[in-house]
Amino acid sequence: MDVLVVGAGPTGLALAAQLRAYGASFRIVDRSLDRVHESRALAIQPRTLEALAPFGVTGELIGRGNPAMQVRMHLPRRVVRLPLFDIGLTDTAYPFLLFLSQAETESVLSEHLLDHGVDVERGTELVGLERAGSSVACRLRHGNGTEEAVAATYVVGCDGAHSTVRDRAGIGFEGYAYPQTFLLADLEVDGLERGAVHAYLTGAGVLFFFPLGSPATWRMLTLRPPDVPDTQVNLGLLQQIADRYADDRPVLRDPVWMTDFRLHNRGAVRYRSGPFFLAGDAAHIHSPAGAQGMNTGIQDALNLGWKLALVSRGRAPEEWLETYEAERAPVGRSVLRFTDRAFTIGTSSNPVIRFARTRLAPRLAPSVLRASGPRRLVFRTVSELGIRYRHSPATTAGPRPPGRGPRAGDRLPDLPRGLQARTIGPGWHLLLCGPPALWRDEQLVSLLKGRDDLVDVHRLGDESPWTAVTHGLVRPDGYLGYVARGTRLEGLHTYLDRWLPVQHR
Ligand SMILES: Cc1cc2nc3c(=O)[nH]c(=O)nc-3n(C[C@H](O)[C@H](O)[C@H](O)COP(=O)(O)OP(=O)(O)OC[C@H]3O[C@@H](n4cnc5c(N)ncnc54)[C@H](O)[C@@H]3O)c2cc1C
User: Fold this and answer.
1) Measured from the CA of 159, which atom of ligand 1 is nearest?
2) What domains appear along the chain, each with residue ranges and CATH number?
3) CA 126, CA 337: separation in Å to the nearest integer?
């Protein structure tokens, strides 16, 4: 077996989908007998919707979810209306935050795997890992208590915050716990305008209602106030807290899930140690501010799966596996920083931060978000569309990088609209811009000889945002590996010989 995927949460399920699409031999195991039925992560970012589109599941996710476009910021005696994603995102087919419970997201991914003959082995726990020559000896314990020894070339820990793989691989998980306790409930609320996110801002903190849809209309999220006893969460307690924040007194009822939890901010010291890889919560955990957790995990998986599959099949060099940590660890670190700042601003009792939260932010937010620069920055960051790998060893700017349009390491924008759909098939995509006649067939035949089954060619003409007479190579995860100007393809040839060499067949 090439890959053992440990954990079938959203990260493991996405990884399995990509390993299958790229022809790896793998197994996916999870110690729990059933998938998660709680909502947990409640939103899917635009970039995740794009990244999952190649598996044909994005339409189903959108069909089951609830796109929210507006935020209502509730202040004493007034409500400020803010746009959420309906401005500033012109280069994606999904310019919205999709509210959908994690249970539904996992259900859609599980159904996709089932439809493609992938068996998620539930009730199967990884209990032992040991390096054995060029492979890993793994011990799996089944629900009936029997143990099975299996060998895998690579093991990926998608096994959450308490990762067994991380522990057995001896990878540290550094960070800290926040002192506060969060209260969470999925429930019905009378008196709230539907389809918007509601944030009640006071000196004491923030109370959120998110439009979840299923299994209940709303997700309530707030901090346990210091004077509220640490008893089990119940509806009366939540109503009492809501009444402190909300002048308009929304009435809470029919909870389907109520819980409290402590938050941490921790990151794995390494994302890889030899044959062991970490992805998702096994690699980073943080506050839910900005709905980044599950999204980052799914995108970790979709950065890694095709690399593991192509290397295992002998179609790409081992060096690709080093690029996983080089590309994803900086993303993980930046999510830890960003969510920590947002958490501090939302919860601090420091008088300066309280003043900024309750007085400055509501006053400034509408005009800041109307200005195109800050607006774009905020939306690009939260939507995860701004993630790029310009400093990766596996992205190369050609000898004459174009003056405008995307650069090597950037995500392929959906411009002209529909470009992402045209390049959705598995493998690499060579984009040739400028008059089609400029690109000679014999030149392309020589470039792609021995790898043409992995590279599709697209002649784009002069379509924006590309400078005329540009060529670019899109990787299987939708990021540009190489971009250059002109019709000379020697630079691209060198790139392909290094990263997709013919002799690796
Ligand atoms: C109460 C709560 C509220 C949350 N709210 C939000 C939110 O509002 N927004 C947000 O973005 N995120 C939220 N999260 C976080 C979000 O749920 C995670 O980021 C997401 O589930 C991570 O997915 P994952 O697949 O990496 O890990 P997980 O979903 O944790 O999946 C790990 C899987 O590995 C399995 N496993 C573990 N050890 C083994 C082993 N040894 N052998 C076999 N299987 C194993 C587990 O059974 C589990 O199914 C919340 C989490 C919790 C608990």
Assistant:
1) 34
2) 3-64+98-174+266-344 (3.50.50.60), 396-504 (3.40.30.120)
3) 31
